Amino acid sequence: MMALLRALLALLQRDLLLAVRRRQDALVVLGFFVVVVSLFPLGVGPDPQLLRSMAPGVLWVSALLATMLSLERLFADDFRDGSLEQLLLTPQPLPLLVLMKILAHWLVTGLPLVLISPLLGMQLNLDGAEIVVLMTALLLGTPILSLVGAIGAGLTLGLRGGGVLISLLILPLYVPALIMGSGAVDAVMYGSSPEAHLSLLAALLIFTLLLAPWAIAAALRIMLD
Amino acid sequence: MAQPRVQWFKFSSPPNFYDLSGRLIPWFGGLAVVLFITGLYTGFVVAPPDYQQGDSYRIMFIHVPAAWMSMFLYVLMAVYAAIGLIWRVKTAEVMAKAIAPTGALFTFLALWSGALWGKPTWGAYWVWDARLTSELILLFLYLGYMALHGAIEDRQRAANASAVLALAGVVNVPIIYFSVKWWNTLHQGASITVTSSPTMETVMLTALLLMTFACWMYSIAVVLWRARLELLERERRTKWVLERMGGKA
């Protein structure tokens, strides 16, 4: 048991250390998120009321795309230098190891999106309560995006044009998270309680947390077979 | 271990599957033709015009079976994919791959006929109705499956990887459906529903059922055909293929 915990922590530490050493990767994702959100007003016009009503959707779709962008790197580097194969050979259960890698990935790419979202929310004219709900929804939703996306990242490992393929495979599966997430912000905006949306989002997170690691592990075993 | 009375796995061996499906395809294909003709005749000639929608409701005879098939085929594809992934049954892998294009075709048909039906009844080719939206997402799922299958060159790996994707998809389909439905009712207030008149006339129902069975038979025939070709290609170096192809390697 202790050995398992130590292995998991070591893996988490390694991935975080790698991310710190190559901070550009994470910053590019964050920059992408900010740029995409800032482009919307230029496309649809500066009308504050319009921007406000579009804000939940814009922020969520941009978060989906930013996550999408970061997914290709999730296993690719480890695959190239062979450490992913070593990971598959370890005695520790692969789904748990995979979960650690995703946790690291989320801490590096998902969490920054959550933290910067208030700023972008203000840019799009959201008020205080709406921003709180937006952050909560993103906090619950971005781990789902990382988990489901990792299935796609595993399945496209080592393929030509894998990055584009991931988006075709995974974006349809993001629909529930997108609906619940932006729906929560919509709900506060129209003066009703966001609780139902947030509860469903949390349920979806638990559900994904239970199933996705096994699917990812299966995908990795298949692609490295 | 007790032997089951019917040796199901006998049919899953490629040569047996190849021979049996070769004998079955003409029957399913023939039935499909007969059913299509009688179904279309009943639907377009015998059935009376609807008192509200006039003649435009007749699109239903294509639209409804196509929508049913599109959903059913996705589940069936996932079942075959699971069988292939878990028990390593090669024929099941081939069947899963063979179902995908037919499923995508029916999804597309359902969307297309829905759009054509939507124009006279709702006044728009496309509305973000829950069913339309989830059907569209289903089409994306089919396309993703086929794209992944096509992108991986190794056949065994392609079959396994896309099986995982099909299973992830099938777990998600109900969640997607309900979330889209919920999203739709929240956003549109009173949602537009595709209600057929509650008491459908017997002749309309007959036409609808005939068309549904026709689509069934068509799907079986085409999927088996595609699976046969795929099997031949996969097994082209084995003895049974050479025997059946007259010994030309």
From TrEMBL, chain A:
It is a multi-pass membrane protein. One of its GO terms (molecular function) is heme transmembrane transporter activity. It comes from the Bacteria. It is found in: Cell inner membrane. The chain crosses the membrane at residues 27-45, 96-120, 132-158, 164-188, 200-224. The keyword Transmembrane applies. GO terms for biological process: cytochrome c biosynthetic process; cytochrome complex assembly. InterPro entries: Cyt_c_biogenesis_CcmB, Cyt_c_CcmB_bac. The keyword Transmembrane applies. One of its GO terms (cellular component) is plasma membrane. Keywords: Cell inner membrane, Cell membrane, Cytochrome c-type biogenesis, Membrane, Transmembrane, Transmembrane helix, Transport. Belongs to the CcmB/CycW/HelB family. Required for the export of heme to the periplasm for the biogenesis of c-type cytochromes. NCBIfam families: ccmB. PANTHER family: CYTOCHROME C BIOGENESIS B-RELATED, HEME EXPORTER PROTEIN B. This is Heme exporter protein B.
Automatic annotation (TrEMBL), chain B:
Belongs to the CcmC/CycZ/HelC family. InterPro entries: Cyt_c_assembly (IPR002541), Cyt_c_biogenesis_CcmC (IPR003557), Cyt_c_biogenesis_CcsA/CcmC (IPR045062). It is found in: Cell inner membrane; Membrane. GO terms for cellular component: plasma membrane. Keywords: Cell inner membrane, Cell membrane, Cytochrome c-type biogenesis, Membrane, Transmembrane, Transmembrane helix, Transport. It is a multi-pass membrane protein. Residues 32-187 form the Cytochrome c assembly protein domain. Required for the export of heme to the periplasm for the biogenesis of c-type cytochromes. GO terms for molecular function: heme binding; heme transmembrane transporter activity. The chain crosses the membrane at residues 24-46, 66-87, 94-112, 132-152, 164-183, 203-227. The gene is ccmC. This is Heme exporter protein C. GO terms for biological process: cytochrome complex assembly.
